[in-house]
Spore coat protein (Paenibacillus terreus), 162 residues
Amino acid sequence: MSSKEKKKTLAWHETLEIHELTAFQANHLMGFKMMLPEVADPALKTLYSHTIAALEHNLKDLLGFYPLAPSYTRKAGQEDLTAFQAGHLLGFWKNAVRSYANSITEAATPQVRETMRKHLNAAIEMHAKAFNFMLERGLYPAYDLPKLLENDVKTAQKAIAL
């Protein structure tokens, strides 16, 4: 394909990155919207509102790529709160693993490094438990890319509409 020809589909790896960004932002958007009424500080409430608007914009942009994903199909459906809650938990542990892995590279004190290593291993275990919870209940179809992307679209649309 020449560089001037338009691609018919996205590459698999970029599709998966878009999935990760969409799932991460949609789950956090729902959480920020649920917490917004409870934020008392006016400046923090403004930051939450700006974050919500930015995430809605991001999700709308990302959803525009879904029709270009390989083997993508559209289907109607609903997700329940369990899927959001489990996805939020999974996203937390995934980011905890990343944060601890990065922090270990900054640890100069052996005791700090050992504590971070223990926390990292615990975060890896918790991530696996959250992942398996979702996989076993059909909430995270990790081995079915079209269904995974379909779930992203539903979750992002639900987060935007919340």
User: Anything to note?
Assistant: The radius of gyration is 18 Å. The first helix runs from residue 12 to 35. Residues 12-161 form one domain.
